[in-house]
């Protein structure tokens, strides 16, 4: 009957809008059936500390990302300079190749011209040789007495000498022309050999230049790819930096809201201490308040020592007694954003199965009887540096 009354009472209260269904809660619920696994409430100040820590971590990550970004931009700038140098080098190599190709073309034409001259020289030599042979054959075929008669038939000795000189000069001319053509042929052949050697050297230089061009082109390709990769990394780092900046901005906004909320809590705590307080004898507890309070104590301090359980119950009852808070156990516990087990649905789960232990009930009884071991404290949280209050177990009460 007690359990059903509490459930009905909770349903009737408008402040139960944040209650989660057991089915949904079970999907994300950290097993609470072991009393030692029940965790304490994270208060506003703890949230502030966590937000500040997360903000500091984000700022560190942003600094690291900015340093990384600066490094990437520096590397990218160096690579771009290197790429410009490589392109200039490639232009120079291409210019050398163009010049070598022009020289090779000229050398090829010169070789062709030399080979044509050589062929002409060979033909001339052959013609001269044929002429010599023909003259020799003619002279050989002439009768000897004709030669003698030609000499004897001369009118005088001078004509004889002229005739002899004529035959001698013909022979000498043929010999000189043969030697001249042979020398010319040798010179042309030497020139051709020289041209062929020069052509081979040009071809070798062209091969080297093409290899250099290929190497430089490969370097340009790799450098361009590296620049592209750095551009992607820079883009990602800039995106990450913007994300960190956005997160930091959100943290700052959250911190501002939390600090405002914390100041309001401190103000309410001070106001509660100075406000009118009812005596415990003036409070009329409803049926089911004990069951509700015992299960809240279980959720908030199930793993704490007994004094810690009494202290949590005392905070709830102090709020009931203070004019700054609702005047009922139900109203205090379900006041918006005051007790995390309410928002998470953990309290409803505990209520549905009755998880409160005997110590939780005993602590609830003491608190509802007016016993307090934390004075007029109306807040509690896990300890953090700089927060003063009464420490019992793993909680600071203030």
What's this entry about, in short?
The protein is mainly α.
Question: Could you give the topology of this structure?
Answer:
Layout lengths: L1 H11 L9 H7 L15 H98 L2 H9 L4 H118 L14 H13 L4 H16 L7 H5 L6 H5 L1 H8 L4 H11 L11 E2 L8 E3 L2 E3 L1
Antiparallel strand pairs: 1-3, 2-3
Helix pairs in contact: 3-5, 6-7, 6-10, 6-11, 7-11
Description:
The protein has two domains: 2-30 and 279-397, Cell wall hydrolase SleB, domain 1 (Arc Repressor Mutant, subunit A, Orthogonal Bundle), CATH 1.10.10; 63-248, Helix Hairpins. Helix content is 76%, strand content 2%. The chain has eleven helices and three strands, in the order αααααααααααβββ. A three-stranded antiparallel β-sheet has the order 1-3-2, covered by helices on one side. The protein is rod-shaped, with a radius of gyration of 57 Å. The relative contact order is 0.14.
Helix tally equals: 11
Biggest pleated-sheet summary: 3 strands, antiparallel
Strand order of the largest sheet: 1-3-2
What percentage of residues falls in helices of 4 or more residues?
A: over 70%
CATH topology of the largest domain: Helix Hairpins
Low-confidence stretches: 13-42
Query: Over all CA atoms, what is the radius of gyration?
Result: 57 Å
Give the CA-CA distance, first to last residue. Answer: 36 Å
Q: What portion of residues belong to β-strands?
A: under 5%
Order of helices and strands: HHHHHHHHHHHEEE
Number of beta strands: 3
Q: Which CATH architecture of the largest domain is right?
A: Orthogonal Bundle
- Work out the count of structural domains: 2
Structure classification: mainly alpha
Q: Outline, from the CA principal axes?
A: rod-shaped
The level-1 CATH class of the largest domain: Mainly Alpha
The residue-averaged pLDDT reads 82
């Amino acid at each position: 009957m007690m359990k059903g009354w509490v459930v009905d009472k909770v349903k009737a209260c408008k402040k139960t809008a944040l209650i989660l269904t057991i089915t949904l809660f079970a999907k994300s619920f950290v097993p609470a059936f072991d009393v030692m696994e029940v965790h304490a409430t994270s208060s506003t100040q703890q949230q502030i500390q966590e937000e500040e820590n997360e903000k500091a971590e984000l700022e560190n990550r942003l600094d690291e990302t900015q340093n990384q970004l600066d490094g990437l931009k520096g590397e990218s700038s160096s690579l771009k300079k290197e790429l410009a140098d490589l392109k200039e080098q490639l232009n120079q190599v291409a210019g050398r190749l163009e010049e070598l190709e022009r020289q090779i073309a000229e050398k090829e034409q010169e070789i062709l011209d030399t080979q044509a001259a050589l062929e002409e020289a060979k033909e001339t030599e052959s013609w001269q040789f044929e002429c010599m042979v023909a003259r020799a054959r003619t002279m050989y075929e002439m009768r000897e007495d004709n030669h003698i008669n030609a000499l004897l038939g001369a009118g005088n000795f001078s004509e004889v000498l002229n005739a002899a000189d004529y035959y001698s000069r013909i022979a000498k001319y043929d010999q000189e022309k043969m030697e001249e053509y042979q020398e010319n042929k040798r010179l042309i052949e030497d020139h051709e050999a020289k041209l062929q050697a020069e052509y081979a050297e040009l071809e070798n230089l062209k091969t080297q230049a093409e290899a250099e061009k290929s190497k430089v082109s490969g370097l340009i390709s790799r450098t361009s790819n590296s620049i592209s990769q750095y551009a992607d990394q820079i883009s990602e780092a800039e995106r990450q930096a913007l994300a960190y900046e956005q997160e930091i901005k959100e943290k700052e906004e959250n911190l501002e809201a939390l600090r405002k909320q914390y100041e309001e809590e401190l103000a309410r705590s001070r106001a509660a201490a100075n406000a009118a307080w009812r005596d415990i004898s003036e409070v009329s507890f409803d049926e089911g308040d004990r069951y509700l309070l015992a299960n809240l104590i279980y959720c908030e301090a199930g793993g704490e020592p007994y004094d810690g359980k009494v202290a949590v119950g005392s905070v709830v009852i102090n709020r009931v007694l203070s004019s700054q808070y609702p005047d009922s156990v139900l109203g205090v516990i379900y006041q918006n954003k005051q007790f995390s087990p309410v928002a998470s649905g953990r309290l409803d789960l505990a209520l549905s199965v009755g998880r409160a232990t005997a110590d939780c009930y005993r602590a609830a009884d003491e608190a509802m009887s007016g016993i307090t071991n934390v004075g007029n404290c109306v807040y509690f949280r896990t300890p953090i540096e700089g927060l003063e209050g009464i420490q019992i177990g793993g909680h600071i009460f203030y």
